[in-house]
Amino acid sequence: MERKQSTQINIMVATQEEERKRISRDLHDDIGTKLSALKLSLSSLQEKAIETNNDEIKSMAENSGQFITEAMQDIRKLLLNLSPAAVEEFGYITAVEGLINK
């Protein structure tokens, strides 16, 4: 009975890890890429605002760029929390022990 429970727990942990990895990939590849492209687009808009001496658009582009930077930082933190390096390098048990010690 104990062996069966251990197997079930291992399967459950492995399934959760795979889901975390999938979510991490989706956040990094899809959302991260779109935010990067949007930031580049805003940078172009800001340059055009400078060329045309449009301070209002320049300011809006700067503020929007800052929001995007903050969103990208939030996503990076989320990615680290979803898939800590300790899990990848040392395994689940060591990572949990590290979190407990913190």
Tertiary shape: elongated
Largest sheet: none
- Number of helical regions: 4
* Rg calc: 21 Å
Helix-strand topology string:
HHHH
Helix content bin: over 70%
Low-confidence segments, given as residue ranges, are none
Structural class: mainly alpha
Tally the beta strands.
0
Report the β-strand fraction as a percent range.
Answer: under 5%
Our measurement of the CA-to-CA distance between the termini, rounded to an integer number of angstroms, reads 34 Å
Mean pLDDT: 83
Task: Please give a structural write-up.
The chain is built from four helices and no strands. It is an all-alpha fold. The longest helix has 50 residues, at 2-51.
Write a compact overview of the structure shown:
This protein is mainly alpha-helical and 102 residues long.
